Amino acid sequence: MNFCPFPHSLRDQAWLAVGLGCGVLLMRKLRMKETPPSVHVLLVNAKFESVDHKKKFKQIWSNIANKVKEVEPNCLSYEFCDAVEDPTKAIIYERYVTRVDLDGPHQKTLEEWKATYGEALGNLKFSMELVNYVESNIGYMDK
């Protein structure tokens, strides 16, 4: 019996393409789940003068969140979280592959954001405390 490993019919070629495509997507998804060994975390504790100031800040902040997702591949998470007990408090939770990713590319994005929205930010009253961490890899961030 003669056997040729290459599919000759159009139907078999289409199924081969579908199979290869699914395989590539699966491999990408599996690769995305791998967590780097020492993820750097920046936790920003924010306190706003009023709920209105916080609301306006969040509207402005959404622009940098979109930009970070677009241009910073080594930023793993960038999330604004509202405090449950005090509506004038929030945190910004940032995760980077390394501290260098925070100190380098992210600072450039942040400077551009401040240049664009600095005047609007200047009209808001808030304070921020920045605390740096390194993940221990005990536990998990997502399933």
Major sheet summary line = 4 strands, antiparallel
Annotated CATH architecture of the domain at 40-134: 2-Layer Sandwich
Q: Give the SSE order as H and E letters.
A: HEHEEHE
Strand content: 15-25%
Instruction: List unreliable stretches of 5+ residues.
Output: none
What's the number of helices? 3
According to DSSP, the number of beta strands is: 4
> What's the overall average pLDDT, rounded?
88
Straight-line N-to-C gap = 48 Å
Cα Rg = 22 Å
Helix content: 40-55%
Structural classification: alpha+beta
Order of strands side by side in the largest beta sheet?
2-3-1-4
- CATH T-level fold name of the domain at 40-134: Alpha-Beta Plaits
InterPro entries: ABM_dom (IPR007138), Dimeric_a/b-barrel (IPR011008)
Domain ABM: 52-103
Protein name: ABM domain-containing protein
Explain what you see.
This protein is of the alpha+beta class and 143 residues long. It has a domain of 95 residues: Alpha-Beta Plaits, CATH 3.30.70.100. Helix content is 48%, strand content 24%. It has a four-stranded antiparallel beta sheet. A hairpin with a 6-residue loop joins strand 2 and strand 3. The termini are far apart.
